[in-house]
Design a protein that fits this description.
This protein has one domain. It has 127 residues and is mostly helical. The chain is rod-shaped. It is built from six helices and no strands. This is Tetraspanin-31 isoform X4. It comes from Callorhinus ursinus. Keywords: Membrane, Transmembrane, Transmembrane helix.
Length: 127
Amino acid sequence: MVCGGFACSKNALCALNVVYMTDVINASWWVMSNNTRDELERSFDCCGLFNLTTLYQQDFAFCTAICKSRSSTCQMCGEKFLKHSDEALKILGGVGLFFSFTEILGVWLAMRFRNQKDPRANPSAFL
């Protein structure tokens, strides 16, 4: 799924498509330590990253997730990471849109009220 809703802030976040996120997740997976991988597999209840490499079988063999003891097949962690990051980017886009619209409102209010005269001031005064 490439950049789902309007809350994705079309200009900034649509550049982060599935291929780019897959590359980032794949690169970070092989950099992290085995303890971190095991902890992620247990917390997300998944085994391995993607079934794209020959290292997947080795990664699946050392998996300690609960889903492996329940059944012979587990969902791959890459799919869960992509779904989780997509949801997070949509939320982030919505927050960005909220703050951009409030900033536009603030600029409009500042321009509207900046040159108003004070009704309590002396009318014969220069400023």
